[in-house]
Amino acid sequence: MDKFEKLTGIAAPMPLVNIDTDMIIPKQFLKTIKRSGLGVNLFDEMRYDRDGKENPDFVLNKPQYREAQIIVAGDNFGCGSSREHAPWAIKDFGISCVISTSFADIFFNNCFKNGILPIVLPKEAVDVLMKDAEKGANARMTVDLPAQTVTTSDGEVFHFEVDSFKKHCLLNGLDDIGLTLEKAASIDAFEAKAAAARPWV
Amino acid sequence: MSPKTLYDKIWDAHVAHEAEDGTCLLYIDRHLVHEVTSPQAFEGLRMAGRKVHAPDKTIAVPDHNVPTTLDRANAATMTEDSRIQVEALDKNAKDFGVHYYPVSDIRQGIVHIVGPEQGWTLPGMTVVCGDSHTATHGAFGALAHGIGTSEVEHVLATQTLIQKKSKNMKVEITGKLRPGVTAKDITLSVIGATGTAGGTGYVIEYCGEAIRDLSMEGRMTVCNMAIEGGARAGLIAPDEKTFAYCMGKPHAPKGAQWEAALAWWKTLFSDEDAHWDKVITLKGEDIAPVVTWGTSPEDVLPITATVPSPADFTGGKVGAAERSLEYMGLKPGTPLQDVTIDAVFIGSCTNGRIEDLRAAAAVLKGKKIKDGVRAMVVPGSGLVRAQAEEEGLADIFKEAGFEWRLAGCSMCLAMNPDQLAPGERCASTSNRNFEGRQGYKGRTHLMSPAMAAAAAVTGKLTDVRELM
Ligand code: SF4
After folding, report:
1. What architecture does CATH give domain A6-197?
2. CA B412 to chain centre
3. Which intervals hold domain Aconitase A/isopropylmalate dehydratase small subunit swivel (chain A) (predicted)?
């Protein structure tokens, strides 16, 4: 999994509340064989019209936000189904941090499995960050995971909380597999013991 | 030593690491893989530069998407996205060196039928697959459950699963079954009694005389639907029938290894005084041939009953029943046996084994299906199909008017072209009657193969005992 340490980049403002996983990645894209490549269909129904033409009013289609790496969103981001395709699409687009007042639980956890940092901040802070994001490409926000801060383009600093274990995993790029592989010696030892006890397996 | 359940014993034999909070790394003996939930997992390995930890313990077979029509060798019979998923499995199996049964192989079939048939599934093993009906393998006294795509990748990379232990639940079916009552009626009746969340947090062990009396095929049917009861897994202690089934299977141990395996397998039972967190007992004699009337597998009634009214329920079930009846197009008070059907599906990992086809053929022998009914048999594997042909069952089906298909999941989940049309009503031997499961707005009644065959003959939901 990608590490997340410190990121300075463009933030796209999405003041909509309840952005659900169907909006993030509609169900017709679930019959894919890939986890990557979903970025072009991120927010598909908002981003394109029926003929596949870009909707110029959608934030990520605007020239100043095409390279966004952060989303600042309204309440309850990521509600809906448990599809891991949602964080896959977000990550594939190039976004690795989402800031909101609240997230749906499953989506929140799925983010950490996929190198994305979801940040929860109080409404006043999100309002300030939303305004900063609306300034466009010249206003770069900085997210610093070790320091647990978000800094606006004007230098205003907000401190956020994050579970220490999740922080450790994200900083070191450890997914569940990475963590399990830290116990490779135990697995190998078990395998040797099991092979002796149950050689037919 | 303190007494243990069968689940405790298998669990203890597979803990590779235990953290202080009780989170364990459970070692996985067999990992079954199919085309729909695995592509992202394999891709994850590639992106991280990882290998499959134990390709020898990993078995792949395409089943969910594959066409079951006789012309399927022609790639054009598949929709493009399905074809791509199957081709991805072909490539992943080859690149990562796992065991593979491609569509062209006679051993291809539904993953949960292929595993036992090839002797991959054996007593005391841990078995996982990115599919909820992995519980099927519990019939061998193997701890088997479904996992998600991230977990598929985790098992591929590490051969372990991060797990916390579930609680123990005993489901005992005492006494004998009455004529016309089958394993499917047992498993549906258990779900009817406990509800779809009754098993949540538990691993179920099925026991009692009626379970002992079942064949291995019947036991697989029972365990298959443990998941519909909410359980993490279903288990049945292995016995002489289990050992006889396993003996001589291609990947079962031979010679001295067989003897060693057998010695261990014989210790795999729940100790007399083992602790159970929950116990359910049903009398075998009380179980009737049943069908589902609604859109949840717990909506089970004896075939002799009438369609219930929402007023028969309480709490949240009232609204659910209203919605179910509306979706199913049924009126309260209608005798179930007056409900006419349009389609019959015999197959799936619940009831696509040879014994299921025998039971259905026994009802159909010398009969024709009702005019206007569309009926298909989809054997669970190429080998089941071949055996059914050898036994003359295929001829019985064909003469009765059934389509005789190639192996796959088919109309169990309707991911391939085998689908119900909106409003079509199907007597089905599969395991889920959810809205849209067998096709958009399709209506599913779950039942045993014999009951589905009876429905094909009369064109209505039918008490199979009247045709016996
Ligand atoms: S037959 Fe149905 S339940 Fe079984 S594996 Fe296939 S789709 Fe799943």
Report:
1. Alpha-Beta Barrel (3.20)
2. 10
3. 1-123
SS3 B372: coil
Instruction: Phi first, then psi: give them for residue B191, nearest 5 degrees.
Output: -65, -40
Mean pLDDT of B244-248: 98
- Tokens 């053929």 found at: B361
Interhelix angle A85-93/A105-113, rounded to 10 degrees, is 50
Q: Residue B118, Cβ neighbours under 10 Å: how many? A: 20
From the CA of A199, how many Å to the nearest CA of chain B?
7
Q: Which two tokens stand for residue B301?
A: 């009634």
B349 CB near ligand 1 (under 6 Å): yes
Provide the pairing of β-strand A157-159 with B425-428. unpaired
ipTM of the complex model: 0.90
The Cα A78–Cα B406 span in angstroms is: 41
Question: In angstroms, what is the span from residue A9 Cα to ligand 1's centroid?
Answer: 45
Give residue B319's pLDDT. 84
Whole-number Å distance between alpha carbons of B55 and B133: 22
Q: What is the DSSP letter of A21?
A: H
Q: What is the mean pLDDT of residues B314-328?
A: 88
- Count the Cβ atoms, other than its own, within 10 Å of residue B75: 12
The residue among B440 and B6 whose pLDDT is bigger is: B6
Task: Walk across the sheet containing A6-14 and list its strands.
Answer: A117-120, A97-100, A70-73, A6-14, A140-144, A149-151, A157-159
Q: SS3 for A38?
A: helix
CA distance B207 to chain A (A): 26
> What sign has the CA pseudo-torsion A124, A128, A129, A134?
positive
Q: What's the whole-model pTM score?
A: 0.83
List chain A residues with CB under 8 Å of B153.
Answer: 177
- What pLDDT is attached to residue A27? 61
Asked if A104 and A77 count as a contact pair (C-beta separation under 8 A), the reply is: yes
Q: Determine the Cα–Cα distance for residues A23 and A31; give it in Å rounded to an integer.
A: 16
pLDDT band at residue A80 under the 50/70/90 scheme:
low
Which alpha helices (DSSP H) does chain A contain, by range? 21-24, 44-47, 85-93, 105-113, 123-133, 164-171, 176-181, 184-197
Ligand 1 geometric centre to CA of B353 (Å): 13
pLDDT tens-digit map of B407-462: 999 999 887 788 999 999 999 999 999 887 898 889 999 999 999 999 999 999 99
Of A33, A183, A194, the CB nearest to B88: A33
Q: Looking at the partner chain, which of B88, B124, B159 has a beta carbon nearest the beta carbon of A187?
A: B159
